[in-house]
Amino acid sequence: MSGIVLHHATQARSFRSLWLLHEIGLDFELVVHPFGKNLRAPEYLAKHPLGRVPALEIDGRKMFETGAICEYLCETRAPALWRAPGNPERADWLQWLHYAETIAVHGANLTQQHIVIYDDADRSPLLMQLEAKRLAKAVGVLEQVLSDHDYMLETGFSGVDTAMGYSVDIATRFITLDEMPAVSDYLDRLRSRTAYQRAIERDGDAHIYKKAFYVPPIG
After folding, report:
1. What are the tens digits of pLDDT across the range 38-95?
2. Are 187 and 143 in contact (CB under 8 A)?
3. CA–CA separation, 179 vs 9, rounded Å?
4. Using CA atoms, how far apart are residues 213 and 147, in angstroms rounded to an integer?
5. Could you tell me if 62 and 69 are in contact, meaning their C-beta atoms sit under 8 angstroms apart?
6. Residue 36 burial class via C-beta count within 10 angstroms: exposed 0-12, middle 13-18, buried 19 and up
């Protein structure tokens, strides 16, 4: 058994950690969980107190926040993907790492409305429309940055791109990138990476996003 264990669910935010582990080239054990009661079992709650994914077992500890996992893995295993204190890109590295979660929150709200809530009567067309607009605005912030360079940092690919790439990838389930050509090209570059493709292979069959695109309702 590997000394590193990643607990993952297909298409969930833990994909960020799965992808990053492949980018670094680490050996690790992948435990894929279905969404359901097993994530609420006491033995799993000891790894993640909210019964969610990811949970990463590494260096004798358990971690469960994707941003923290990204920073820890880059700091301890892949300095080339990190920007250490004192590096001129340190502030940008931190900003985009956390901004990836800003985008993800809007995607999560739309996932809740479109997918998790089954009954149409319980869905809010107004909220879905507003969140789609907020998501498009949040992703749109990246257009100027990516017009200037291929990845989020001027010096090239870093761990931040696994976090941001996942958020943008999920965003395309709810918004189009027709007016964001630089973001669209960025996503294509990320999807062409060998580590991304290996992570996709291990991610498994779709369990959350079974449609390519979820159209906001008219209401």
Report:
1. 899 999 999 999 999 999 999 999 999 999 999 999 999 999 999 999 999 999 999 9
2. no
3. 32
4. 25
5. no
6. exposed
